[in-house]
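Hi R.,

As promised, here are both runs. First protein below:
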Amino acid sequence: MQFRRVDALPPYAFAEVERLKLELRRAGEDVIDLGFGNPDVPPPEIAVEKLREAALLLRNHRYSSSRGLPNLRAAICELYHERYGVELDPETEATMSLGAKEGLVHLLWVLLAPGDSALVPSPSYPIHLFAPGFAGATVQRVPALDYVAGVEEAWEAAQPRPRVLLASFPHNPTTACVELPDMQRLVDFAREREMVLVHDFAYADLAFDGYRPPSIFECDGAREVAVELYSLTKGFSLAGWRVAFVLGRADVVGALARLKSYLDYGSFQPLQIAATVALREARDQPAQAAEVYEGRRNALCDGLTRLGWEVARPKATMFVWARIPTDEKAQDFALRLLREAHVAVSPGSGFGADGEGFVRFALVENEQRIAQAVRGIRRAIC
């Protein structure tokens, strides 16, 4: 039987790395997994305690609201006001999603249809490349490392003219960052061409060396053309809770909320209650998480540099994007590191053809384990 949408998906890009990793572990080998970007920093205790407390109340086990509890939407708008000086209306400019991926996919369902197209950075987090296709649209790729400068050329080359401009800074996997004037250029570009600018702000909280990633809403005119996805996954270390938000342009947020009212009843209500507490009473958690990832970044980058493998030191995210120091293909190099160094990394080709020649390290092991990984890599490449 032929399946719609699923049959058009390529094989899972990281499947072979996953298969070999499991094979080695079953054989008793100690594999250091720097491939899957699965946050491991402990969540705020106050949120976990509130989750336990809320789960004991029977009324919280009933259906909730797909838009998110009013207090939860108010809490994210309060964070944006405190951090970015932006006044968002929790009734019309904020809706909850079950993680940023779910929010993005369904957002593009209301923005795109067969015959439409979207500008998307490449290489990119896989759902950015595939979500437009789930809506029946096509993708016009723009080099992620020169995205702001490249969108105009991509616009001119695209047929039909793109309806959506998808951006994500700090960027996964390349760790590319922008400053506020760069974001303003994207907002102006989208406004001039009557596009919707979708900004995935997944790594808003994880920045180093004094860098502060700008929100799209710090730009003039952004609320007329843009929506932004913000997640509690990374900075608040609540990956499994699947709590995220789509914020901004009211008609777009309203359209998504209407669609989602047919699809879900929101997340488990105690999760929403506890997430509200995290946003209001654990505001220091993102800075603490960023400090942990910064230490790991330093341990990995310094260690690889000592091996003669020069890598760029990222200003943000929980990743290091590294050009392969040999002439091997990304998949072959990643598999060799796994076999010889017992270190799992993500081949750059898994993030699109433009990722060939690179691997991505996820900073999800402690500094001691990262030092052990560097020693293993020395055996493989030196």
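And here is the second one, sequence first, then its structure tokens:
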Amino acid sequence: MPLRKSNIVLKMVNGSVWELPCAPNLNMWWNFGSCLGLLLTSQIVTGMLLAIHYTPHEAMSFDSVSFIMRDVNYGWLIRSFHANGASMFFVCLYVHMGRGLYYSSYSSLLAVWNVGVCLYLMSMGIAFLGYVLPWGTMSFWGATVITNLFTVIPYVGMTIVHWMWGGYGVSGPTLKRFFVLHFFLPLAMVVVVGVHFLYLHEGGSNNPLGVSSDVLAVRFHPFYTSKDVVGLVIMYGVFSFLALGFPEALGNYLNNIPMDNLRTPQHIEPEWYFLYAYAILRSVPHKTVGILAMAMSFLMVAILPYIDNSNFRGLQYYPIGQLLFWIFVTNWALLGWIGSMPPKGVCYDYGQIFTVFHLLYFGLIVLVNRVWDSWIYAECR
């Protein structure tokens, strides 16, 4: 008997990875889960290396980042891989979520989807905390804007904000708290990823046809390990090209200027993966309603499995649903572009239109699929 089947520990790994039964028709869009695992590992390792030299002090943090970039051996390489790794992580994450929405993976894997939404929110929080740590101009003002959103919570909003700040404004205590959270939350995220895997292996993965494939299931190794290796090599090649060739392409030049709390930038712009949510927030004139609209954009992703009762699993069976989905993706990208522009003129008007469609999409897709189902069943009678 092979060691992987006789050893207690290796037996668990063997059943969860080596001999895991999988659908035989999984395509390239299923590779991004493995890419996310590799990138999360890369982020934790590079983050720990950066933490060795980083100083979470308002008078020294910016200089410590400069020290890492200039004086630490390969410090520039570590920071470039860490900063651009966050962007690459969100690229894979959004594609992974998009695949789940298109193929309706949530309909058969509800627990997996719910844990995935939690991982998405954790990723957003960790990325925001990390964005503050360089203590540049955009870091400081981004922290000021985002933390002030909690003031809309009745009665306790201002208390929560003061607790996050560690005082009456974004300052040194805020930086220390954000650094501690940014260091420990990824470790907590690893545990949640384990829960995500546990539910996934218990229920089995969805497939492009959306039908049960237990009879035709194949082993994960070698059928999908080989496919995943190819995907990981391509992804890491693109990632390395970005980190080594264009390390500042996705950053903001204002973050290379030390923090100045007396000089507000003309246009406060977050990282690209926050831009769509930022555009939704700015598109609503009323602060509280804008925050609720932004929260709804996250909440609808979690609610969708409970309101979608389509007869077929996946938009590949719904031509109008497919059209709506790709309009939604385009709309999401346009929201990101709006978020990168100053909130005035035609950009503000278009931002409101795109925001309304973004929030209505989840109801529209359910309605369209129900109408299509009723039409199909009417034709079959």
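A quick note on the second one: The beta strands are 21-22, 218-219. Let me know what you think.

Best,
J.
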